[in-house]
Automatic annotation (TrEMBL):
UniProt cross-references to Pfam families, sorted A to Z: 4HBT
Signal peptide: none
GO MF: acyl-CoA hydrolase activity
InterPro entries found in the cross-reference section: HotDog_dom_sf, PAAI_dom, Thioestr_dom
Organism in which the protein naturally occurs: Qipengyuania algicida
Keywords: Hydrolase
Protein name, UniProt field: Hotdog fold thioesterase
Coiled coil: none
All copies of domain Thioesterase, residue ranges: 55-128
């Protein structure tokens, strides 16, 4: 059977499977979609079990989703190696208590060793609740060796 998907689309679907296979993602109701090179989108639900003591989402969920969205946007351009986050800056702009949130990632620059990508969080009302910028570098880990990453023919 011959696939109609391009090599890039197969890479994007493999990255989506890699995200879904990560043990950390069993803790969060989230799903990654990669629409095109340099972009990612993670939809997730904020629930009470990620609240801090004042009754809103803890900053760890902001960081995790912003980092993941930027990371996967950047890794769309690296088809051979897993990238590693080397730095990440984030800005909290609004607390969120519950509901669906979207993390949008966008590659900014770099294609060889270091990549820069940015991301933002948007709540169910369409308001930006957080923003981040990350720097990622190629690791020595080949993508094809990771259990969740599989490019299907």
């Amino acid at each position: 059977m011959v696939s109609d998907e391009s090599g890039a689309e197969r890479h994007f679907r493999a990255l989506e499977r890699l995200y879904a296979s990560a043990p950390i993602n069993r803790l969060f109701l989230s799903r990654l979609a990669i629409p095109e090179e340099g972009q990612s989108r993670i939809a997730f639900s904020v629930r009470e079990d990620v609240y801090h003591a004042a009754g809103a989402a803890h900053g760890t969920i902001y960081f995790k989703m912003l980092d993941d969205a930027a990371f996967y946007a950047a890794n769309t351009l690296a088809t051979d190696r897993f990238l590693l986050t080397t730095s990440f800056n984030l800005h909290f702009t609004k607390p969120v208590r519950a509901g669906e949130v979207i993390a949008e990632g966008r590659w900014v620059s770099g294609r060889k060793r270091v990549f820069v990508a940015e991301s933002r969080l948007v709540d169910a009302q369409g308001d930006e609740i957080g923003r981040g910028t990350g720097t990622f570098m190629r690791s020595r880990i080949p993508l094809f060796t990771l259990p969740g990453y599989s490019v299907q023919p």
